[in-house]
Amino acid sequence: MATRAASEVYKKKLLDRFSDALIDSIAGFMNKIRPGWKVRNQARVDEWKLMFYAFNRSPLGIAGAILVLAFLLLAIIGPWVAPLSYDTSLALCNQQAYLAPPKTTVTIPGGCEALGVKPGNYTLYLGGDSFGRDLGSRMLFGARTSFVVMIFVLLVGPWIGIGLGLISGYFGGSTDELIMRTTDIFLVFPGLILAIAFSAVLPSRISGFLASHHYVSLFFLHLFSLKIQHEGSLASLLSVIIALWIVWWPGYARLVRGMVLSEKENTYVEAARALGIPSRSILVRHIMPNISGPILVYLSLDSGGVILTEAGLSFLGVGAVPPIADWGRIIYDGSQYFPNAWWLIFFPGLAIFLTVLGFNLLGDVLRDVLDPRTRRSIEFKLKKEIEVGEEQ
Amino acid sequence: MRCKDPIIVVKDLYVYFYTYAGIVQAINSVSLEICRGETYCLVGETGCGKSVTSKALTRLIKPPGRIEKGEIYYYPEPGKKIDIRKLSEEELRELRGYEISYIFQDPSTSLDPLYTLGYQVAETMAFHKVVHNIKDGIRKAVVVLKNAMMPDAETRVKAYPHELSGGLKQRGAIGISLANQPRLLIADEPTTALDVTIQAQIMDFLRKLKEKEGLTLLLITHNMGLVAEMCDTVAVMYAGEIVEEAPVEILFKNPMHPYTKGLLKAVPVHVGKKVTLQSIPGTVPNLIFPPPGCRFHPRCSYKFDPCDKKRPPMIEVEENHKVACWLYEKKG
Predict the structure, then answer these.
(1) Among A271, A285, B228, B301, which residue has the fewest nearby CB atoms (within 10 Å)?
(2) Residues near A314 by Cβ (< 8 Å), separated by ≥ 6?
(3) Largest CA distance in chain B
(4) Are A73 and A95 in contact (CB under 8 A)?
(5) Taking the complete model, does pTM exceed 0.90, yes or no?
C-alpha cells in the first residue's frame, strides 16, 4: 500500500478543514519568505494538523477555545466598542441611572456635555452601578485590564521560574540547593497573602518612577485604555503586576527543575556534552525545547489563575483603585448593594468564571493534545471510527 | 612504556561514586596506554567500569561521581603533553568533540529528537569554529554525512531522528562525532543496539576510516567476536580493574587470567560439535564493599593463599602481555 500522508487518513470534519486551511496558509507564508520551507518541514506541518484533528474532536477543548477567544476578542476591541466610557456617571444627569436594573433605558437631556455624553437614549443592558455608570461598558474595559495584567504577569513571572529551574536542575549540587531552598521560602507564604503585602507597599515607589518617566506611564495608559487624568491610578495596577511576578515564579521553578532532572539523563544531553557543546547551549537549545510542551500547558492553565488572583486582589481592595474598571473591583464595589443590585455581582462574577473555565478547559485539552502518548490514543480511536465507518 | 608514541596515558586512576548507599569504588587503580593509530579494546561484563573509564578520559564523569586520584595525559602530537586533569572546563569543552570524540551505544537516544541531522552535525562544527555559523555547517554536513557512509546524504540532512532507522541514526551519530576530524574516537558499544548486518557495516566503516584518516580508536564492547576482528590491543576489565592486557592474538591464543579464560569459554562457537557453554559462577561483586585482595577471588577456581588478602600487581609475563594474578608471580 502506498503510504498516505497522515492528514489523509482521517475523515475530516468542518473544523478540520478550517484548521488545515489555517496551517496550510501559515506554511504557504513561511514558504514564501523562505523558499523550500514547506518541503523541509512537511513532517512538522503534518504533526500540527494531527494535533488540531485531535483538538477538534474534543468538545471541551473547543468550548474552552471559544471562551478564551471571546475573552481575548472582548479584551482587545472592548474599549473601542463600549457605548460609554468606564467613568461616565450618568446618574449626575439622570437619577434613573442610579443602580439601574439591566435593560433600563436612560434618557440623557442636553446640557450634560461636560460628561462627554451626547443627549439621547442609552440602554444599560447589564444595568448601572451606584454612580450610574454602565456596567456593560465597565466590564468591557475590565476585560482589557485583566488581559493586560495577565499578559504582563505571564511574560515575566513564569520565565524567572523557568530560568531558575533550568539552572537548578541542570547544574545540581549547591546551586540546586540554593535555588530550591529560596523557592521553598517563597512557597511557604500563601501566594495571595504575599501578593497583598507587595501590592500594598509598591504603589508609592512606582508612582514616583512613573512621575519621572512620563513615556512609560503613557504607554501603560494606552494599554489599559485609561484616560490621561487617571494616570495616578496606574501605579496600583503596575504594583499588582510586579507583586504577581514575585509570587508567580516558584511553581515554575519546581516544575521545570523536575522536568530537567529527567530530561538531562537522556543520552543526547550526554552526547552534546561529549561533543563539547557549552552548557548554556545545551540548556537553551536542547533541554528547553524538549520540555516546552508541559510548560505551554501550565502557562495556559495559569492564565486563568492570574486573572482570578488579580480579581481577588482587587476584590480585597489592594489592586485596581476607582474609577478603573476591573472585574474584581466591580464586585467589591457592588457587594454593598447585594442582593438588591444583584447584577453588579452576577455579571462580573460570571465573566471571571467563564474566562477562568475557558483557560482551564483549553489547558487540560492542550495537555492531552501536546503529549504524544495521549495523542496517539486519540488518533487510534479516530482510526477505529473510520474503519467502522468504512465497513458499513 | 608499551608505546613509543602514545596518544593517551592513564596512570593509577580512581573514580568513586558517592551514592546514598555508600561510596562505589567504580574504577580502582586503572592504568592504560593507547598508542597512536591503534585500536584499543576494553572488554568486560556489564558494570565493570568500561564506560566510566572512557568518560573519565575527558572528565565527563558527572556528580555524584568524581575522579579521586590518578593522572590522565593526552598527546595531540608526539611529544606534546596535555594534562587533562589540570585543564579548565572551557579548555576541556574545546577538546571534546574536536580532538577526542565519542560515539554512544544507543543511537535512538543520542540524537536530539527536535532537530534535523544536519543541524546536529552543524552544531558541533559551529561550536568548535570549524564553520562560521549553523547555516554554513548544514551545507557542509552533507559532505560529513557522505563520509560517514550515509546513503542519500542530501535528503537525510533534512531528516529528523524519528524518520531514520537505527543503522542510519548510528551513521548520523558517527557523522556528528567525526565532523571535526578528531584524533581519538571513543566508541562505547557502538553496535550493541543494532542488528548484525548493520553491525558488520559499521565496523567495516570504522576500520576503513582508521586506515584513511589515521585516527585512534578506543572500542568498548563485550562482544569477543568484535574484539578478535577489530582490535590491536585488548584490556580485560573486571570490577573496576584491568586484569589483563595483551595484543589481540596473544590474548586469544594464551589467556592467562582466570577471568579472561572464563570469558573466552563463554563465547559460543558456531562450528564444530556442540559444547555446553561455560559460565563464570557467581556475579559481579558489589563495588561499595569490594572483596579484599584480588576482586575476582570469590569466583575464581584457582584461588589460593594470597588472593583474598593482597591485591595482585600487574605482572608482565611476556612482551606486552600483562596480567594481574598471583598465579604468575615469579617464585623466589
Answers:
(1) B301
(2) A240, A320, A326, A327, A328, A329, A332
(3) 69
(4) no
(5) no
**Residue B66 has which C-alpha cell?**
568524581
Residue B286: name the closest of B63, B47, B58, B103 by CA: B47
Q: What is the pLDDT of residue B204?
A: 85
Q: Looking at A96-190, list the stretches that DSSP marks H as alpha helix, in order from N- to C-terminal side.
A: 135-171, 173-188
Measured distance between the N- and C-terminal CA atoms of chain B, rounded to whole angstroms: 25
SS (H, E, C) B243-298: EEEEEHHHHHHCCCCHHHHHHHHCCCCCCCCCCCCCCCCCCCCCCCCCCCCCCCHH
Using CB atoms, pick whichever of B63, B113, B160 lies closest to residue A172. B63
pLDDT in tens, A262-309: 988 888 898 898 888 888 989 998 999 888 888 888 888 888 999 999
Residue A225, C-alpha cell as written in the block: 485604555
Torsion of CA A308, A311, A312, A313, to 10 degrees: 130
Looking at the structure, give the CATH architecture of the domain made up of residues A79-87+135-377. Orthogonal Bundle (1.10)
The answer, for B113 touching chain A at a CB cutoff of 8 Å, is yes
Per residue in A345-357, is it b (16+ CB within 10 Å) or e — as a string? bbbbbebbeebbe
What b-and-e string marks burial along A98-133, b requiring 16 or more CB atoms within 10 Å of the CB?
bbbebeeebebeeebeebebeeeebebebbbbebbb
pLDDT at A94 over 90: no
The reply to whether omega before B64 is within 30° of 0 (cis) is: yes
Q: How far is B158 from chain A (nearest CA, A)?
A: 6
**Distance between B63 CA and the closest CA of chain A, angstroms:** 8
Q: Do A277 and B97 touch (CB under 8 A)?
A: yes
Residue with cell 593522572: B71
Amino acid at A367: R
Q: Characterize the bridge pairing of strands B315-318 and B241-247.
A: unpaired
Contacts of B93 in chain A (CB under 8 A): 276-278
Greatest Cα pair distance, chain A, in angstroms, is 80
Inter-chain residue contact A290 with B113, CB threshold 8 Å = yes
Say how far apart CA A371 and CA A289 lie, in whole Å: 14
**Integer Cα distance of A80 and A225 in angstroms:** 9
pLDDT at B66 over 80: yes
Give the domain ranges of chain B: 6-99+182-328, 109-181
Estimate the crossing angle of helix A135-171 against helix A173-188, to 10 degrees. 150
Residues in A closer than 8 angstroms to B110, CB to CB, are 267-268, 270-271
Chain A contact set for B111 (CB, 8 A) = 268, 271
Nearest partner of B247 among B270, B267, B231, B266, judged by Cα:
B231
Q: What is the mean pLDDT of residues B255-262?
A: 86
Q: What is the end-to-end Cα distance of chain A in Å, rounded? A: 22
A310-321 pLDDT tens trace: 999 988 888 888
pLDDT in tens, A321-358: 888 888 999 999 888 888 888 899 999 999 999 999 99
Q: Decide which of 2.30.40.10, 3.50.50.60, 3.40.50.300, 3.40.630.30 is the CATH code for B6-99+182-328.
A: 3.40.50.300
Give the Cα separation of B218 and B230 in Å (integer).
11
* CA–CA gap between residue B296 and residue B325 (Å, rounded): 9
> Which letter does DSSP use for residue B329 in this model?
P
Residue extents of the structural domains in chain A? 15-56, 79-87+135-377, 88-132
Q: How far is B243 from chain A (nearest CA, A)?
A: 28
